[in-house]
Design a protein that fits this description.
The chain is 27% helix and 22% strand. By secondary structure, the protein is α/β, with parallel strands linked by helices. The protein has a single domain, classed as Nucleoside phosphorylase domain (Rossmann fold, 3-Layer(aba) Sandwich), CATH 3.40.50.
Amino acid sequence: MTTRGRIGLLGGSGLDAFEGLADRREEKVQTPFGAPSDVFVTGSLDGVPVAFLSRHGRGHLIGPSEINYRANICGFKMLGCDAILSASAVGSLREEHAPRRAVIADQFLDRTRGRADSFFGDGLVAHATFADPVCPSAASALEEGARASGLGVAPRGVYVCIEGPAFSTRAESRLYRSWGADVIGMTNLTEAKLAREAEVCYASLGLVTDYDAWRETGEPVGVDTIVAVLRDNTAAARQALRDAVRRIDPARTCGCRQAMKFSILTDRAAIADSARRRLKPILGRYL
């Protein structure tokens, strides 16, 4: 019988709390990479152990460029999570991805600048395979959960991750459309990279709030529009995550949990003790 790992739940704009957890408790986790965005709220949903974290901190105090992504993902791993289901607001770059629908991105384009988006370096070199950056099993669970919760959902799409905090110019928005991108956001790619390095399954439910800036008609995206749509979709998003949690197969064979088996290039004998201590919560079994 396969032991069920804890499922991480990562909430973004409009979803900085998660009600309904049994055996709820708050856990403060200190990682080798610093402090996560907030305390983790642990408990269970329908008998499945979970840990919830607010990406921007409760009260939305941390901007997308200020998030300690490494500490967040490391914290989930230290709490025994072997999968993370994320929810976040995204802008649409396609007419068919209308506000109040959802997109589960399966590919990313990186437009960030200089974020700490890897656990490696500083004496330990490793290269993660990232051709397919999202766990298919976790993505499938999210899709089924979204449909069961009444959310219209596209099961795949290309997510452009920009630095922020400003939204795109019209020229940028049109450029991303010409690249074939579907949605735009500021956080998910960095999380997906780190989750892969930590051998944690990852998928994200992108809640469409607006049409970004590419449309000639209508007003460009504003915070007031985003907040209004998120307010309408929060209950459905929370239910989609709750439903997806129980659909995650503990015996899944996606390969995410062995993704780094052959990825470390540094000679084991040459790895400094400081690097071993730093990476122990992430990939201690290989060091």
